[in-house]
User: What shape does this take?
Amino acid sequence: MEKAQKAYETFKPYTDKLFADDFQNAEELTLIGRGIDRWATINSEYKNKVSLNNLVLEKCFGASFIRVDREYWPAKVAAAEFHLARDDQKTATELLSAVLQQNPNDITTLSLLGQIAVKQFNFDGADKATDAIRKVDANAVEGDILETRNLLQQRRPKDAILVIQRVLNRQPKNIEAMGLLAA
Assistant: This one.
């Protein structure tokens, strides 16, 4: 944990730099936003500085896809992940739907929409997301992981084991797959 804290400490100064400097690179702003979010999460800074939420959303992700480059959809994906981490599925779904308009083949977006569907017990929606992922890449690990989550939510662990084992056969050290296997 100490290594992670040291690594993300690099982003702490950006909490002030974002007000002083005028960043004009959407990718850079998005990466800074992700870095600040990880730094704040690891160090429990969100408890101490409530305004950090708005800083990351408005000065990083929002500025990326509203002010700097309206076509930079990865900022919307980052904002959606930020909202999902705070249990705001509605806003995340809106952002991800907008991303699909720009890039209908983004596996991360399809996976996130599938995860939302699983949480809402929308098993057909999760199946559609899994199918969409497999249309993009038939061997995508994200598709197998999403299918496993969906099967586990449906209380079908024997079916889930068969699917997640495919991931572990390809990637034996995939932490997410190992966690799902243990579930």
